[in-house]
Amino acid sequence: MAESVITLKQVDVNFVEKKRSVHAVDHVDLTVNRGDIYGIVGYSGAGKSTLVRTINLLQRPTSGAVTVLGQDMLALTPKQLRLERRRIGMIFQHFNLMNSRTIADNIAFPLRGRKSKAEIAKKVADLLDLVGLADRAGAYPAELSGGQKQRVGIARALASDPEILISDEATSALDPKTTSAILDLLQSLNEKLGLTIVLITHEMEAVKQICNRVAVMDEGRIIERGDLLQIFAQPQQQLTKDFIDTTIQLDAALKSVVAQPAVQNLKPTDRLVRLTYVGDSTDQPLVATLYKEYNVVANILFGDIQILQGTPFGNLIIVLSGAPADLDRTFAYLKANDVTVQPIDPKEVANS
Amino acid sequence: MSWIEKFFPNVVPIWTGDNGVVQAIQQTLYMTLVTAVCAGILGLIIGILLVLTDQHGLLQNDPVYFILDKLVNIFRAVPFIILLAVMTPFTRAIVGTGIGPTAALVPLVAGVTPFYARQVQNALLTVDPGVIEAAESMGISPLGITFRVYLREGLSELIRVSVLTIISAIGLTAMAGAVGGGGLGNLAIAVGYQRYQNDVVWVALIFILVLVFLVQFIGDLLARKTHH
């Protein structure tokens, strides 16, 4: 049984400002286990940032219970809360470094007054090493690139040896290559230090790269949650499907696919479908089986296979040609092998 | 030195002595310096309190903010020359006299403090709220955040508004003559203007300008040093 390090129960956040009331977080339950990299994905305004801020009480919930590392956060005095916050690191979209301090001073900032000068110097050097910035200790934030600034942010968040790291859109201001490098760093910290990470983002790509669990948020609620593979394999909500599609650029692919002659000259018996499969189902040579066993020809128009946590996740857009009876048997076979089949209407795609 | 006598015939005889130019310079420096220190400390404290007790501030406190905010507004609304007059009884109670440079200090501090407090408030509000939030997330106390984040990150802006305030205080000392405070402003009006001695007006003006430029120069130097 995994140990839960963060438990939110019926957490509700209501902003009331001059008659207008905004229900930012709507009775959310959330459990994060030790060692998780828990992704919370949603569009901006979905309430993700507000939700994670209830973990370290940067945002006090209107109602509900917050338990972090076995501590009832809402029962703490301000002083106790400050001590508890040192066990929860946080990194931000805009890094939030102090421009008047050097990199080393920024990282040392949370330690000043808590440890001796020598201890701090050693810790800062170790952290700079860990994030790969040992040579920039004396530089000021203004001299660093975005990716380097976020590395400083990470080092600073780790200075008090937290057990949990909250990442608030930490890669959203970075280019794709830098994003990937920062995510790799977070993953290695998760493995090396056993750090539990809560990662909020609007980029499913980031979730896909490092998270083992994911929750999808919309209008203050978690509308779907589960293991990464389970969510990718069997998304239930339309929003979840939309997010997954962003990682395979399916929209763009579909448009160019339907413009192809193979689709334009579709025979009445041909079926244009999208196949989605995860893991084991891909071990079998799918296309070959269809032809050999069911006499159905599969013409692959678009294919995307990604590896999620070591497991393949595939999306194919194909035209299946064959006798109607054979096609029916084919669909039954696919279903039995956990391959999701979605028919595609070319006219609908072209008009969308 | 004949050109001095030629261009500044009325300045030479009153260079030294009572109500002379040198004394006026000393009085202006004295009033500016003491006002800068007193109003500086008071304004800084009130400015910080305004930021901390404001809505979404670290120590949000609506009644305290309301009172401070209104006091600052009221004092800033009173024209300084009237403040000098209405404060006389209060001044006498505090410094024991109603006239002279020291008596001018009380209304000067009362006039400059709210101005500076508002400037400090605005300067500190330029500090990125994200940085404040980051410090909070690290478990830093409100006092720690005030000194180690607000005052540190807002330092170059604080220097800028301090220079602005000192220059405006120099301007206000020119009115101190109304309560016998003396100073360069008084020299220009009571001696130069009213006796039709334009050269005295010019000399007073030159020394005030030199003082202002000096303050500006030092301020710019400090601001550049703190900016990264």
UniProtKB/TrEMBL annotation, chain B:
Q: Which residues form the ABC transmembrane type-1 domain?
A: 25-219
| Entry GO terms, CC | plasma membrane
Say which domain of life the source belongs to: Bacteria
Q: What is its main location?
A: membrane
Biological-process GO terms, alphabetical: D-methionine transmembrane transport
Output the InterPro entries linked to this UniProt entry. AA_ABC_Transporter_Permease (IPR051322), MetI-like (IPR000515), MetI-like_sf (IPR035906)
CDD domains given in the database record: TM_PBP2
For this UniProt record, give its keywords in alphabetical order, as a comma-separated list.
Answer: Cell membrane, Membrane, Transmembrane, Transmembrane helix, Transport
Is this entry keyworded Transmembrane? Answer: yes
**Compartmental location:** Cell membrane
Indicate the transmembrane segments per the record: 29-52, 64-87, 93-117, 158-180, 200-223
Q: Which Pfam families match?
A: BPD_transp_1 (PF00528)
What's its membrane topology? Multi-pass membrane protein
Q: Which family does it belong to?
A: Belongs to the binding-protein-dependent transport system permease family. CysTW subfamily.
Mind telling me which PANTHER family this protein's record contains? ABC TRANSPORTER PERMEASE (PTHR30450), D-METHIONINE TRANSPORT SYSTEM PERMEASE PROTEIN METI-RELATED (PTHR30450:SF1)
Q: What is this protein called?
A: Amino acid ABC transporter permease protein
Write down the species: Lacticaseibacillus nasuensis JCM 17158
